[in-house]
Design brief:
about 140 residues; alpha+beta; about 35% strand
């Protein structure tokens, strides 16, 4: 029997980030507590838990997932924003595809579709740009 827990999901999401050649850092928890000064490598994936819903036969874990990048000194502001949103949007699409199609979590895990990613520009204390979206992952649950 498989056990589906918050820790299991976070570990799987971190495995995705570690394996992806464009993602340089993964964190989870409250975004205000993320140490953005810790590393200068970007793009960054951050996961914030929203809720866990229990019903007969299934649990749904809801997460806000952020993909963000930081401007480079040589970039013009609008070029940076354009490329950051473009690249981070692709990272978000890669994650959704991995979960929904490739069986990343196994056959019994389902990502609820559709998933919407919202671009952001100049957010947080470091003028980050990228995308954020909510992903709901449904797993088996026996009451």
């Amino acid at each position: 029997m498989n056990i589906y827990t918050y820790a299991t999901i976070i570990d799987k999401l971190e495995q995705f980030a570690t394996a992806h050649q464009m993602i340089k850092r993964f964190t989870h928890g409250q975004i205000a507590q993320a140490d953005l000064e810790k590393e200068g490598e970007w793009a960054w994936m951050h996961v914030v838990p929203n809720s866990i819903t229990y019903s007969r036969g299934a649990s749904v874990y809801s997460f806000d997932v952020f993909f963000a990048d930081l401007p480079r000194v040589k970039d013009t502001k609008t070029d940076y924003q354009k490329f950051a949103i473009s690249d981070c949007s692709q990272l978000f699409a890669d994650l959704v595809s991995q979960i929904a199609i490739d069986g990343f979590f196994g056959d019994q895990w389902v990502v609820q579709l559709p998933v919407t990613a919202n671009p952001f520009i100049e957010e947080f204390t470091h003028v980050l740009s990228g995308v954020q979206g909510t992903i709901n992952i449904e797993v088996p649950f026996d009451m």
